Amino acid sequence: MHALRSAVLCGILRRKDDEEETLVTHENLLSVVRNVIAGKPDGVAYRTLARDWTMREVGEASDRVAQGLKALGIGPGDRVAALTKHTVECILLTLAACKVGAVFMPVNWRLAAPEVEFIVNNGKARFLMVDAAFVPVVSSGTYPDIGLTVATDRAVGLESFHDWYARFEPLEDHHVAVPGETALQLYSSGTTGLPKGVELTHANLLLPRSLFRDVWGFQGGKSVMFNALPCFHIAGMELALLTLLLGGETVLQPDFDPQKILPAIGEHRITHMFLVPAMIMVLVNTPGADQADYSSLERIAYGAAPISEKVLLEAMRIFGCGFLQVYGLTETTGAVTFLPAEDHAPNGPCAHLLRSAGKALPGVELRIVDASGKVVAGEAVGEVWIRTRQNMKGYWNNPKATRDVFPEGQPEDGGWFRSGDAGFLREGYLYIHDRIKDMIISGGENIYPAEVENALMKHPAVADVAVIGVPDEKWGEAVKACVVLRPAAAADAASIIAFAREQIAHYKCPKSIDFLPALPRNPSGKLLKYQLRKPYWEGLARKVN
């Protein structure tokens, strides 16, 4: 007890379990999937709107895709890309790439044509799978390394992905990967600067199995996951892989459509879901949400962005299941902390825990450091650093960026990774304030937008809010709130500011309010605050982006 208190007081938290999952030296994605298929070949792996896929069918189809890739001369270290909403096809291509030693590289399908072109060419992808809807995006670019482009569905001028791989015999001689080989390359959201390719290894992707099984309670053969997240997002891709690795079933939908999602929960007896807060907010506000059948639901996990207590409490009321918050990044292969269902107690002495991101997962260490890299004392706010074997291999072809986020190097334990998030530790729980770059400094005071946003979200007329810093001659920066009102609700700036002043210190309260129809978000649900800040800082010597 004294050791834990001492660790917390000096800003470091470490969680290690004696039964932490270890990787056999020869274990990789394919060896695990091979054992799953052998154990339950006829078990359903994925249910889509078009068809069901058994474990055996996933294995056989990916063998044919692998043979097709090999025929194109694709091998160890090559990248194969996808611009698609279809998750099963992404899983097939991931497994096939592993079978020839290549790396799967999904691309954000919401990006503009030049951004897609940059990512595909940055990865030097040699194969591209694309939805018909995104063919115009691809057609406007130049891709010198692509040897073949196929379509997941029918597209003029392109062969169907399924027709293409059906022409090949299954590949039998698979590449044998070591755990440290890259298997998946996801690109950072690029909200500031150019996106970077995050290299995740076989070991990275296998380690979260224990979290999924022991913390989330997902049991292969009994549990059913719902996944409507895109595969270019770590949560969407990792969930689809983990359910397969554990021999479980996933119901997949290519779009987040609340009118289809809510009835699907009861129809398919969904037990587990992962949602970003923006999705939860939409679901609880969907007409008829409190009348659907949620009797099968056991756990809803959420993360990737802050959630307001108001939305969380409403979701807990409507869905009536356990909630699990997780915090992590693409670079950490997803979750590194968790707030379990028993800590989601809105009343009583532990209610404050709802504002935390939970405790470190087994095998994860956290520390809070100041701008000079020194560990802070007590509950002081600083940057969150993370050490875990889930930490990425590095940024693809970008050694400088990799060194910047691993200032002390990358030993076998994963090294200390700089998250870029501001937070503090209290009694073993991590509290995230904001991204370091989003912090507002007004009159010498540090103001964390998330705290202000949480206060404003309690206003009955506020549906969504983002808080930013704007130029101020006297204070350097002033707090501005960008507010989306609820349908048919009315409120003016003065009343909202007065409301905030009743809850938080006056210096933290917004000095001005912008009313907007919607807030800009990326496909992961993260606010694009730089878009909100840009008009105010343009042309000034100091820019907050």
Name the structural class: alpha/beta
Count of distinct strands: 26
Any idea what the shape is? Answer: globular
What gyration radius follows from the Cα positions, in whole Å?
Answer: 23 Å
Q: Helix fraction?
A: 25-40%
Number of helices: 17
Distance between the termini: 42 Å
For the sheet with most strands, the description reads: 9 strands, mixed
Low-confidence stretches: 1-11, 14-24, 541-545
Mean pLDDT across residues: 89
Strand order of the largest sheet: 3-2-11-10-12-13-14-15-16
Could you characterize what this model shows?
By secondary structure, this protein is an alpha/beta fold. The protein is built from 17 helices and 26 strands. The chain has a 9-stranded mixed β-sheet. Strands 1-17-18-20-21 form a 5-stranded antiparallel β-sheet. Helix 3 (55-71) crosses helix 4. The longest helix is centred in the N-terminal third of the chain and has 17 residues, at 55-71.
Secondary-structure blueprint of this entry?
Elements: H1 2-9, E1 12-15, H2 29-39, E2 44-47, E3 52-54, H3 55-71, E4 79-83, H4 87-100, E5 103-106, H5 113-122, E6 127-130, H6 135-139, E7 148-151, H7 161-166, E8 182-187, E9 197-201, H8 202-206, H9 209-215, E10 224-227, H10 234-245, E11 249-252, H11 258-267, E12 272-275, H12 277-284, E13 299-302, H13 309-319, E14 322-329, E15 334-339, E16 359-360, E17 364-369, E18 382-387, E19 394-395, H14 399-405, E20 416-426, E21 429-435, E22 440-442, E23 445-447, H15 449-456, E24 462-472, E25 476-485, H16 493-501, E26 512-515, H17 529-537
Parallel strand pairs: 2-11, 4-5, 4-6, 6-7, 10-11, 10-12, 12-13, 13-14, 25-26
Antiparallel strand pairs: 1-17, 2-3, 8-9, 9-19, 14-15, 15-16, 17-18, 18-20, 20-21, 22-23, 24-25
Helix pairs in contact: 3-4, 4-10, 12-13
